[in-house]
């Protein structure tokens, strides 16, 4: 409820109107469902008795949308976090580009950071829509880590071109329905074994495998509060400091899911070519997690335990891959 009123107001204020809204209430206890039914009765609400995680809940929503909404036409799923505010022309500007790029599997706009003052007090609350980037798409590196492109930078026009990116941040992504159908694993679109964190990177990587690129559309502007963030370009000590201020639960899922991501998506030829960078980075990560993080042993144990499951999903992804290893390698520089 801290963020939901602003999100819903921004959705219902869109200049583009051809959409339905579905909210997955993942076991909340703060009156969100009652607020939605009273103020936005046209919105479909699915309520879970407990928190099923980002992946499972979003999969519920995607399955519902694909099964129930406008079966005879091209469908798109806009996935949004609750702590997002859309500019009023977000969908209009995004859909104008979507219509002329049928080869693209996902789309995203210029996501800037929002900051709140006195968020607990509804009367005094003030939202600051900044000109500092939250994400201009996903930016993969040679060591196979993936960061939000431009995170922390001031918007000086450096990301004002429509261009292909590796993927789009899961905080706010428009997916083509056909692309999601082609990359699903059973009932999963996002990997439910991830629970939360890095599932958007995994889906972006799988879309790349399947020949569904992603497009960044800077004219579509939105704002994101984001609870877990840092600048894209950080030195070693900055990275350590950033990890230390995050919750142990977030660090656990982020670490474990990164390793699962590599098992699922990294081809052997690309692994061999990038081995020095991966070994150095993952070696340092492994030692740090083991020595300094409360959930370190659990993250390592659970990652190893899930390898057989990831391997089955890996085979399904790579067997249907439409893209050569060297074509994927161009992103990781």
Summarize the structure.
This protein has 13 helices and eleven strands. It is α+β, with helices and mostly antiparallel strands and 333 residues long.
What report would you give on this structure?
- This protein is an alpha+beta fold and about 325 residues long.
- It has a domain at about 235-330.
- It has 13 helices and eleven strands.
- Strands 3, 4, 5, 6, 9, 10 and 11 form a seven-stranded mixed beta sheet that branches. Strands 1-2 form a two-stranded parallel ribbon. It has a two-stranded antiparallel sheet with strand order 7-8.
- Helix 2 links the parallel strand 1 (about 20-25) and strand 2 (about 45-50).
- Helix 8 packs parallel to helix 11 and helix 8 packs across helix 12.
- The mean pLDDT is about 90.
SSE layout and pairings?
Elements: H1 4-12, E1 22-26, H2 32-39, E2 44-48, H3 54-68, E3 76-80, E4 84-86, H4 90-98, E5 106-117, E6 126-135, E7 138-140, E8 146-148, E9 163-165, E10 172-176, H5 177-183, H6 199-209, E11 214-224, H7 236-244, H8 248-265, H9 268-273, H10 275-292, H11 296-305, H12 307-319, H13 325-329
Parallel strand pairs: 1-2, 5-11
Antiparallel strand pairs: 3-10, 4-11, 5-6, 5-10, 7-8, 9-11
């Amino acid at each position: 409820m801290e963020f939901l009123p602003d999100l819903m107001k921004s959705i219902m204020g869109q200049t583009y109107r051809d959409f339905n809204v579905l909210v997955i209430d993942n076991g909340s206890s703060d009156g969100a469902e009652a607020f939605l039914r009273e103020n936005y009765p046209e919105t479909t609400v699915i309520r879970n008795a407990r928190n099923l995680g980002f992946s499972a809940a979003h999969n519920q929503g995607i399955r519902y949308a694909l099964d129930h909404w406008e079966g005879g036409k091209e469908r798109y799923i806009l996935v949004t976090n609750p702590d997002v505010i859309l500019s009023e022309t977000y969908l209009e500007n995004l859909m104008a580009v979507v219509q002329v790029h049928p080869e693209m599997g996902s789309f995203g706009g210029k996501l800037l950071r929002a900051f709140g003052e006195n968020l607990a007090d509804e009367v005094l609350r003030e939202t600051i829509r900044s000109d500092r980037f939250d994400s201009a798409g996903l930016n993969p590196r040679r060591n196979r880590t993936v960061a939000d492109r431009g995170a922390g930078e001031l918007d000086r026009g450096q990301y004002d071109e429509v261009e292909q990116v590796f993927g789009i941040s899961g905080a706010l992504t428009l997916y083509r329905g056909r692309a999601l159908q082609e990359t699903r694993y059973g009932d999963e679109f996002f990997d439910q074994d991830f629970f939360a964190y890095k599932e958007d990177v995994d889906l972006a990587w799988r879309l790349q495998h399947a020949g569904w690129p992603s497009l960044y559309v800077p004219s579509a502007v939105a704002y994101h509060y984001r609870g877990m963030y840092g600048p894209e370009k950080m030195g070693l000590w900055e990275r350590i400091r950033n990890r230390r201020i995050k919750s142990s639960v977030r660090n656990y899922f982020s670490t474990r899911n990164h390793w699962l991501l590599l098992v699922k998506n990294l081809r052997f030829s690309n692994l061999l070519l990038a081995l020095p960078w991966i070994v150095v980075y993952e070696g340092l990560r492994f030692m740090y997690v083991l020595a300094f993080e409360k959930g370190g042993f659990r993250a390592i144990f659970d990652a190893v335990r899930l390898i057989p499951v990831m391997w089955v999903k890996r085979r399904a992804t790579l067997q249907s891959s439409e893209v050569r290893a060297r074509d994927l390698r161009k992103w990781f520089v």
